[in-house]
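Exercise: predict the fold of this chain.
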Amino acid sequence: MFSQTKKTVSSQKPAAAKTVAPKLLKDLRDSASYTAGIHIVNRYRSQNIYNFNSLMVSKAVNDAQASKPLWVSNQDADRVVLAYQSVLMNSKPGGKIDPDPATKALCDSASYAAGVYLVSFFRDFDIVNFNSTIISKAIDDLQSNKKPLLRDSLANMVAMRYQYKLQEVKNKPNIDAGKKFLAENKKRPTVKVTKSGLQYEIIAEGKGPKPTLKDKVSCHYTGAYIDGTEFNNSYKMGGPISFDVTGVIKGWTEALQMMPVGSKWKLYVPYTLGYGPGQYQAIPGGSALVFEIDLLGIVNK
């Protein structure tokens, strides 16, 4: 499931599974919502926190997504859940919770806090607009030990697909600008285009060997946006950089395997072969990028 600390960044569109959503899950949004419910149960179960009131989780999700005043603030959410954890640690054998009204109220508060956490957590991944009813169902399914509608591995994949789709919508202006630029750029006679959509110009042709996917290479490079604004330059960073051919964006990996050592190429990289539709560090989501790469050598030894 999604990491607790690191925002997912992928330049590759997640592949569609043969069966992404069972019939009860009507679309990608429902599947991602079910994934969010699985995430809640798994996250807190690892801390021995269980028996959430799924309807309270659902209410918190609806309130947070509608920007309504929250019963439990995002800052207090962890504290409330930890108070509930303390009660559970002192509960009766077999996981039965004391039916005392105060305990039930604490369970409801912790459930609401878990929903607040869920919205805040996934918002950091640009994942929004959950179906709270489906989240509630996922929580109930797992807490009653029913067979979940999605396996963990499939759930993670559909969440990433939903993330990718939402990021494409969010950053459509950048994507459209990049497509327009690349459509005009490929008309120039010196520009070549590969099947993947990568565009390149040969500034200087080397005579050395071509790197493979197993190689590590040394390069000088510059990186710029389509308006010419430079965002990176190895010449200004004190020297060339070395990296695995598979350790860079897809556009670079593809180009490096075609470049003889000693070559200098200019790449025009669509967002699908770059950093994807989401923001990566200071690079806006959906950006087409322009690189000049000077392949200095293969440095495996």
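Check your answer against the key: Helices lie at 28-45, 54-65, 77-89, 101-123, 132-143, 152-170, 172-185, 250-256.
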